[in-house]
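for the writeup, i need someone to sanity check this before i put it in the appendix. the sequnce is what the collaborator sent (i think, or maybe the updated version? ugh). structure was predicted straight from it, no edits. if anything looks off just tell me and ill rerun, i have time this weekend
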Amino acid sequence: FSDPLAMTLEERKSHLGMRKVWGDLIAADYEQQKTSPHLFPGKARKQWYQRRVREDMSRVLSKNLFDFKLTGVMDDEVKAMEAQFEEMMKSSPEAKAMADRIKELELKHDEDSNKEYIKLLRAATEPFMKSFGENEALKFGAEQTIMTTLTVPTSHDGEFNVPVEVYTPKDLENETRRAAYVYAHGGGAVACSAADVRPGLQCAAVHMDVVVFNVDYRLAPETKCPNNIKDFYEAIKFVSKNAESLGIDPAKIVIAGESGGGYITLGAMVLLAENNESDLVKLAIPCIPMVDDYLFSDPLAMTVEERNSHMGMRKVWRDLIAADYEEQKTSPYLFPGKASEELLEKFPPTIIMEAEFDMFITEASRLANRLRRAGRLLEFFVNPGATHVSNFIPGLKGNKVWIDTLKTIAKEYIHS
């Protein structure tokens, strides 16, 4: 009953018939029973409070490197971290008041409420990003890399120079054909900055033997869809066009991003496919990405993490990222997971990285299935026992698995 644009071919071909079967034949009273697990067993809950291939494009060949066993059990250290967070919220009246106000504003859609919401949301991310940046385990990244900056001139939304931080491993300083890792930071495409993820990306540059281009694309709601993805797209084009002067091997340009940056990455992949430019990119790695409007569907059938975040994400998509939600809700610029089969077949080779308990696991899994059929999926990695955030916290088991996976990707798919 959801939007067929994000469905697989088989789902799309059968959805109208299945709607009739459920609505007119099986249900005694569809409107009354549509939330019942007696009609839809997938909506059962333990407790209510828990939460065809183009001839000119060859299919990519997966090495099938990642087949981690998923047990349905969150890592103990992640559970402990979440419990500690809950205790902190209880002991801090200010933090609880901010969280409660954010929840209230998720239900309001006027301009003043939107302004207050984004202000509070950004303020809420600052302590986490600050503590992340100060983590001692990440200090080696800055010590072993050289940081420079550049700007990418753009004109798609006024004249604007997109800032880019560049991290070059000292071991690669004098090499002239290095791999590039063009990155879009997370934050829901509405918060955080390139500087916030600098420590982690400096470490990634060392781990993966790549030059990182950390793109400080403009955020929503100040910059609306599709102009934020166009900032990132132009940065990709800039690195490709200037590869020689940047000391980059044009055949080894990788694009990546996490969470909201995963959405930005996927949106840029749509633009590359539309313009027949996917050959500029050797590999795309959207990580824990925002993909489509799955979180606008019935929360009863969602995972706990999806259910806990769906109202906030609805507001982010509808009120902050979209220029006109009703007009753009079928566009792959807003929801890359709604790209047509013809576009997916033109995507760069793709590795999707996910976490077992991520809030975007269903939509990312759905896109992975479509990309696999389109012949563009190299790997779909799911980090066992991990959550949206825990992938990136040094010292956690999930973070080690994540880093080891990136190292393997670099060895097997970027430098090979």
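The two ends are 44 Å apart (CA to CA). Residues 111-133 form the longest helix (23 residues).
thx in advance!!
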